[in-house]
Amino acid sequence: MAQEQPYSVGITVRGYETDVQGHLNQAVYLQYAEHARWSILLEAGIRQADLISKGVGPVALENTLRYRSELRAGDEVSVSCRFLWGERKTFRIEQIFTKPDGTVAAELTGVGGLLDLKERRMVDDPKEYFRALASDARVLGL
């Protein structure tokens, strides 16, 4: 069976997001990745308010970003997002920044979790929270 394409969101690089060399500033890659993560949650039917009402919030525990090809002001980029669920307190996230011609501009791999906002500890099974809150859990690979 063919694997479905991962969720992705399109973004146009804005001039003020570039550094002195004219490249997309390194910190902005993380903002684009975060935007894609919140976008996939919305696509699945989960809003920030839904998470807060359950007393949890997503946390990034680790991000590794690999730059492959420069992005400049005016460039279009698609930022994908795929959750890889485990059996523990954390999950992995894979994100690829792709130009319209298929060139990979960057790759981000990360580890995330859900923080219990009262106890300030990671919840034991984050995928169950996402599954319970989502109107379409398939978007999240659940």
From TrEMBL:
Q: Which InterPro entries match?
A: 4-hydroxybenzoyl-CoA_TE, HotDog_dom_sf
Q: For this protein, what is any one GO molecular function term? A: fatty acyl-CoA hydrolase activity
Q: Which Gene3D superfamilies match?
A: Hotdog Thioesterase
Q: Which Pfam families match?
A: 4HBT_2
Protein name from the UniProt record: Thioesterase
Q: What is the lineage of its organism?
A: Bacteria, Bacillati, Actinomycetota, Actinomycetes, Kitasatosporales
